[in-house]
User: Fold these one by one.
Assistant:
Number 1:
Amino acid sequence: MSSNDYKNLYNDYLNKVENKLDLIVKEKQPQSLYAPFHYLITGGGKRIRPVLTMICAGAVGGNPDDALDCGVAIELLHNFTLVHDDIMDRSPLRRNRQTVHEKWNEASAILTGDVMVGFAYNLLPTSNLHPRSNEIYKAFTRGLIEVCEGQAYDMDFNEKKDVTLDDYLNMIDKKTAKLLETSAMIGGYIGKGSDEVINSLLTYANCLGIAFQVQDDLLDLTAEQAELGKRIGQDLFEGKKTFLIIKALEKATKDEDKNLLKEFINNNGLKDENHLPQMVDLFTRLSVFEDAISFADSYFEKAKNSIANMKENLNTQMLHWLIESLNKRKK
Amino acid sequence: MSSNDYKNLYNDYLNKVENKLDLIVKEKQPQSLYAPFHYLITGGGKRIRPVLTMICAGAVGGNPDDALDCGVAIELLHNFTLVHDDIMDRSPLRRNRQTVHEKWNEASAILTGDVMVGFAYNLLPTSNLHPRSNEIYKAFTRGLIEVCEGQAYDMDFNEKKDVTLDDYLNMIDKKTAKLLETSAMIGGYIGKGSDEVINSLLTYANCLGIAFQVQDDLLDLTAEQAELGKRIGQDLFEGKKTFLIIKALEKATKDEDKNLLKEFINNNGLKDENHLPQMVDLFTRLSVFEDAISFADSYFEKAKNSIANMKENLNTQMLHWLIESLNKRKK
């Protein structure tokens, strides 16, 4: 199969997800609750979590369509975290559209996220529908808890002056990788995979998530970000302790460089636009861009190795294609 | 048994709930997430939802202790709604203590509520532990969704100028009665009651919830409120469309009375302290206090009748005692 064929299959899965999302609260009352709900979940995106859930169900030999509902449940859980994170971060835009707390108000944004969790749980199969429903519920709940812990660690980082690479990895493990792991596990359960193969998928998803986040930190400084409605260097203006910042802190030896980083930490972000080229120059000189690329690459490689022994089918091929296409992404 | 014996049994159940709540996130990391969590759930209170869950398990012939975990799950769900409602309502105090968003910040209060839902689900029994786990999960999730809908309707009422008694009853049905119903149902499932007897408990809890809320509207104007850290007439200053206001709107005929109520509606609450005695005088003349009392009484009566045919045991007696003691409460 060609890369285009895989892309088409991805889009087939994605369309099923979009259709399901569009109908989930259609015409439900009260509108004050369900209009922002519908708006939030129909804002597009890669839908990587639900599609991964479907792919994994297929990869272990099951029917990907059987995993649609669980995939959508994880996408709802993801959107629940987004709408609440956007309040916490005071973000006005997401994917070039107003955030819910901006378009409606904060109370609506809190409540919309809250009720979404209920709709998510309602999509999981009960034990009369699936023999591994207990594991599915438990995996889902663990995902919910850890993604909240990840967000808490992320917020702690704003106050913390000495974030290490280990702290960073622990945080993105929970905040970014966890829901991908949840997708892979639940997809594997739905497809009735063995514990061994589900474990491989879990490692795959974890590595993909870590690589994806480090890449995201890199992409913060590339022009294509603007297409998502973000300004270049947004993370740095917000004072986020990204992979780049942490690596630079590790590697800087010159006083001048140390001072610039110290200022970044004490000021909780870049002071103004003029400081961006200085920071980029510092990153270049310390080759932290290369560090990020090779770090991400090593995780993409681990992801690949983790599924190398799986019995090949169209969906395991999709898992390999997914690594390639995420590795090449520009936004 | 004397009233004191019932009270002691209630306190036995309550102590088990308190002990469980105290341990649930003890020493968990990150503290930025779990310190507010622990603070929130150890603030005391009647704990009527978990205790009712235990009583109902006993009332259908099961062991009340078996329902402790589910009861605590419902109490966590209740606290999740409280911590988020307090942000939406900008309440500085709850039970005479600072609210979480005041003591920490809003982001912590959002996240603390969010993660609490996960801990709640983790306390529900999986299908290998209980034959009715599917019904328990479904009832719990329905409770979560409807309590959010109730809060949305309640917020809608702030904007709405013409709230009817039906609107009000629909709102309190979801916002207040629903989680009591959830307690009764899940308690009944845990105790392995028949569908018929669980249905009786459901009606009981619904009626108790409605009566309880109408009583709450009444108690807003009694001196004992101050002991809970609320000011007398708090609901009226906040512009809440309580049972009293809705009844007064229905019954007022004099222009003077209509104008006072119109002013209340347009102004979204009482303008100042001076208007409180005027409103109380209006309520007295229109006998809406009596209306509220007889409305609550009729629901307490319905609650009593709904369980009249249940096979008597210590816990069904507790259900009757609960009606009496809620009916007599002063705060």
Note: The mean pLDDT of chain A is 95.
Number 2:
Amino acid sequence: MTGIFTKALAEFASGELLPTPLAMSVGRLSALDWLACGRAGAAEPVSHILHSMAAAEGGAQQAHMFGGGAAPSRMVALVNGTTSHALDYDDTHFAHIGHPSVTVYSAAFAMGQQLDRTLSQVLQAALMGMELSVRVGLWLGRDHYQVGYHQTATAGAFGAGVAAGRLAGFDASQMAQVIGLTATRAAGLKAQFGTMGKPYNAGLAASTGVEVAQLVQAGFEANPDALEGDFGFGATHHGSADYKSALDGLGTVWMFETVSHKFHACCHGLHAALEAARELELAAPEVAELQVRTHPRWMLVCNQMAPYTGLGAKFSYRTVLAMLALGVDTAGLDSYSDETCARSDLQALRKRIHVQADDTLAETESVVTLLRRDGLRLEASHDLQSVVELSQREQSIRSKAASLIGEARAEVAWDMLHKNVPSSAFAEMFGS
Amino acid sequence: MTGIFTKALAEFASGELLPTPLAMSVGRLSALDWLACGRAGAAEPVSHILHSMAAAEGGAQQAHMFGGGAAPSRMVALVNGTTSHALDYDDTHFAHIGHPSVTVYSAAFAMGQQLDRTLSQVLQAALMGMELSVRVGLWLGRDHYQVGYHQTATAGAFGAGVAAGRLAGFDASQMAQVIGLTATRAAGLKAQFGTMGKPYNAGLAASTGVEVAQLVQAGFEANPDALEGDFGFGATHHGSADYKSALDGLGTVWMFETVSHKFHACCHGLHAALEAARELELAAPEVAELQVRTHPRWMLVCNQMAPYTGLGAKFSYRTVLAMLALGVDTAGLDSYSDETCARSDLQALRKRIHVQADDTLAETESVVTLLRRDGLRLEASHDLQSVVELSQREQSIRSKAASLIGEARAEVAWDMLHKNVPSSAFAEMFGS
């Protein structure tokens, strides 16, 4: 017997309500974005460590890895989940709270190749999984995140399992098994933020999804009510268990449509301010003073006052806004460096930038007020949740992908995402 | 920077304080017991499912699996941890609260073979790991268990990682990395009790230990304070964090010495009553009435009144005591069957057995009062924590192992455990 929430999720995951055309379009954008982040992330030290473990184990070449080579799909999901989150440049869903693509696409592409599924089947299964991740994330709620769980990894594992199960053709009862078994396996702590453990958490979730789906396919019988039942994942992991809100519109409203992509290679908490400042056409020589207002929650996350390292810069309003005003490319991976922090013009400008908490703003919102040297006062605000035209999102992501993996490859991949080719054809682009 | 508890554990795990001779002797008994449970457990359906996953993945033959065959050591740990706990017949440490051997030996034997270590090195590393599992279990405390976490899997993963790390020759700073990385990976819920998910939890912990040690060896950098620091494993997982009690005597007092072995193939909550009843030389025709007193916590765990399945019998005071009185072997795996439950003499006798909660007793204690047909009243009590002579423990475990895997093999294994042979020699006994 399963509870109301698990039953609804299992029926959705195995059912006939398919993603809207808009959700599918956004899903394609996220797939391109994920490919670009994964290929670019393969150069990171954490990716090399996971790769070396895969090489030492060897085994059946069931799917392809970012950085090249093939391995069993459980391992591929671990490597690709870690690698695609290594730069922390992938998409975010603010209701989730987490990064849906790195966990779910990593699982779906691995399982899709193992089972010889087409690219369209992988995209559709991943969209079902990502929608489920968002719903489970909502159900777990803010307390779960605040106490220390990394929702990308916890809620994400359920989405990864369901995407893998969808590719295996599971019915509702098998999907309930996937959910129940994932409940005993999903893990990941925010205490790993700022270390290699953060991207590893995403890899864990992806790999959990593949493992669980494979076990259920082989006839594994777990407690299908281990997510919401007594002593279940919700009860043990500080879940809110508000299933009514979490299920609202499931199957008709596709929350994944509002996923947010990163166009600056820094903490997502800084992006609304950067977008607002962009509207003001910020230029350093004109800046007398700049004031940023943002949701209080970000003050402890990304308000480092005067960092001197590249990593610190990625968590500093004052630094990234000074970079923007000085014409440093905030989308460039190499822009966030110790050298940038050491620039005297940047340090001088940084002193004229002030950050203030404002609890009337949403978490996705910022207001930037510029006092120009000529006395003019300008203000702009931006909300990351505001609707952006699909064509504009497409242009931005294709351009981001081109800068990360080269225009030629980005365009071939984008083209492929519109055709019903074998998923292995797309995955061959993961390698060098 | 690590907290006091992690620092002490990391120093212990990498240090020079070795297990006492008694701890080593008990460790050898547990190794034989674990081998017997693992080989016998390989016939269970859950073991077949894990085995088929290992076969599909293939890869480097780093270590041996129960049931035969070799695979990468991460996979071997997953298979062997699950398989050796499949019968639920392995050892228990009541302070842990959990089953130390199935997680730690499964990790240590896998890693030991991969790194070409001797049997003595594996035994010693496993004892360090099991001691650490017990200490982490104490630190997590009763709340952690009561809320729904399966301590075998959660505390056990830390012990598995440390045992694997010890075999890799880690220093204190690497051990702190093992502990910190395990904190983001350890998982397992009691909601899986009664399903294949329970033994799988043990496999997960073993596999986590091997994976984490391999990553740290390759240079992985996690947050070494993720067990006890802010937003760490303790804070998120309802840990008591009473490090003073948990560290009491660490390195000089070997808590593992008091591990408890099962000599009846049923729930550990029934064993004290069975031992007490054995002292009364219970025989069905003489029983007018039998009263059992036990700690209240067991009333919800193993007091099924009149089960009709073999699985139900394993959780029923009245059934196992009736079996004992009727001369049915409570150590035999096949004794717990639907047929046994259906016996009319057993059902008649069961009605004369009464179970009562008694909160003056320890969890490991039971009192059995027999009213004989001749009017004589006899009483016996047993505490599983009471000291048993090593020679008596040895005799019981060798006899149990002989009944599970045959006397010849059990004696070869027991002999081998006293010699410094390669660990792969012992592991070759896992197969058919």
Note: The two ends of chain A are 48 Å apart (CA to CA).
